[in-house]
Amino acid sequence: MNRQDADNAxxxxxxxWRSSRLGGRFQEAARCSxxxxxxxxxxxxxxxxxxxxxxxxxxxxxxxxxxxxxxQLMKKGKLAEACPKIEESYRLSxxxxxxxxxxxxxxxxxxxxxxWAEYIDxxxxxxxxxxxxxxxxxxxxxxxxxxxxxxxxxxxxxxAAVEGLEVTLDGAPVDSAAWGQARPIDPGxxxxxxxxxxxxxxxxxxxxxxxxxxxxxxxxxxxxxxxxPVPAPAADAPAKEAASPVAAAPDKGGTAPGKGAAxxGKGAAxxGKGAAAAGPGKGAAxxRKGAAxxxxGAAxxxxGAAxxxxxxxxxxxxxxxxxxxxSGTFVxxxxxxxxxxxxxxxxxxxxDLSTYSYSYNVREGELIAPxxxxxxxxxxxxxxxxxxxxxAFAGIALSEELHLGIRALGGYRFGGGYLLAGGPSASMxxxxxxxxxxxxxxxxxxxAKVTGVKGEIPSDLVGLNYGRTEVNVNAREGSLPETALVQxxxxxxxxxxxxxxxxxxxxxxxxxxxLLSAWPTFMKGLDGxxxxxxxxLGYRFY
Length: 542
Description:
By secondary structure, the protein is an alpha+beta fold. Helices cover 32% and strands 34% of the residues. It is built from ten helices and 21 strands. Strands 8, 9, 12, 13, 14, 15, 16, 17, 18, 19, 20 and 21 form a twelve-stranded antiparallel sheet that branches. A hairpin with a 2-residue loop joins strand 2 and strand 3.
């Protein structure tokens, strides 16, 4: 044996075929088996690693396929099929692009509150990703959608807020902190319910449209008599015992039970009233009579149970409280206003003009005529200045979206002057916007610079005065005032553009909304024009 064979002999048993190829493979396998006698944990670990590596890729591919399918269905207008596919795609792989598609689908589907919330989530996700363009787009879409959001207020009066009261909206509990607050909600029909231990459940279906503001008042729940425990009558057991031999009386013909035990309710009707009877016929009659007595006793027990809970009988059934409707109700609005008043009044009077005179040509020569308010007038430069005042509206709500009444607008012009205007007005709501028109008649005054005084020339003498209809008045230097208050009547209209800053619809007198309004106003005066641009902050009670 050589040295190599001796070394091999120390590690591998000597077999006749070890020098063959098969023997060599056997030896290699034996060495591997000694290095790892239990290979299965290693195989399982490799399989798990492969599964973890492959599963995200599979989910991503499936999410992409669902997203493509949803977009194709959305293009075809099949929103009811498209939105669930996009939603499932987002669940498998939450990405901003998928969330944008989901919000767009829900918006087209009419689920405005759902889409609005998704746009808010999209803006937050884009901000984390550093995608400012997507963040701005999500904010713009959400702000535009917010103007059309319907809102529902769940009011719970103090009398209705019993212990354990649970208010739900479409089956989801509404936290007590959210009671009395207007919450965005999808247009459509919704179910409001209220329940409490020992009280009868109350439900109401309410339908809300785009831009609606509705409130639901939860009534005081009536006590539920069926849930109150009824004490077992003391004579209940004897009545049952007396009823059992009655059933056997026809066979035995024996003595029927005497007076039955007292019933729980009446305490007089027993299990049977049959007297002693001999023979089968009378026994059967006694049995029937005894059975009738048992039924009478049961009826007495029920009557007794009903009389044991007088509150349930006395308390009326809860009425179905509907959301408060404001159509046909009185509407009042008041607010503070400020803005600019532009007076383009070019002619008027500033006082006594009889101290002035003017001359013009007549057939006989030249005539010097005295001034008065009928033939002479002063001319003024335009006057522009700020003014502050208020606005008011009083009318009736023809519907929850249309108010008709009278509007007044007034204020003081700094530097001298005023504006007092009023007239019929109509206002209509579109989501969070109120748009309206008002016809106005106004008295306007402005302190303006006097540029001169002119006198009129009689129409039959215009030809003799080179076609002029008026000439300058002869005024001594310094006799004309530098500025004067010129006044006129004006007629025109105003446009209302109001934004609802906060809305508090309810059943109380405080129901209404806080409005930020702009009132572009244009009026034609007897001499010139008047333009006003006030902005107001007010509260509209409705």
